[in-house]
Amino acid sequence: MPYATQSDLVDKFGELELTQLTDFDTPAQGGIVASRVDAALERASGVVDSYLAARYQLPLAEVPPAIQGAVLDLARFYLCRDGVPEDVGAAADRALRYLRDVADGRAALALAAGGTAAADPALPAVESGGAVFGRSSRW
């Protein structure tokens, strides 16, 4: 499930840029090629999920703005075919650093009760088979 939509990309980067990044067939379609945008958003969302899976139950019930921003920056990076402009590469690098920080526990997502954090795999899990001694037991 993508954490952003084509309209989110248009809002952040503009229709002209998305058309330039996606409409490169001959003859040109004259607009944004939705299938290419969808593929980039799916890929970016998959990368985000790979970082979040260590600490959060997926899919997220709500999408925090920082996660949506990371998806948008990564999707824009994935849409660049003919070389990546410096600012686009830098934004993708920042997004990946942020995701690493979330995965390592140096940053956390502000989620409502529905998007709970997963148990830390580094901590031991303890399960009990029930009480052995109690008020009703005799010894």
What does this structure look like?
The chain has 139 residues and is mostly helical. It has one domain. The chain is built from five helices and no strands. It has helices spanning 6-13, 15-22, 34-52, 65-79, 86-104. Helix 3 packs across helix 4 (65-79) and helix 4 (65-79) crosses helix 5 (86-104). The longest helix has 19 residues, at 34-52. The radius of gyration is 22 Å and the shape is elongated. The termini are far apart. The mean pLDDT is 87.
Write the layout of secondary structure elements.
Blueprint: H1 6-13, H2 15-22, H3 34-52, H4 65-79, H5 86-104
Helix pairs in contact: 1-2, 3-4, 4-5
List keywords for this structure.
single chain; 139 residues; mainly alpha
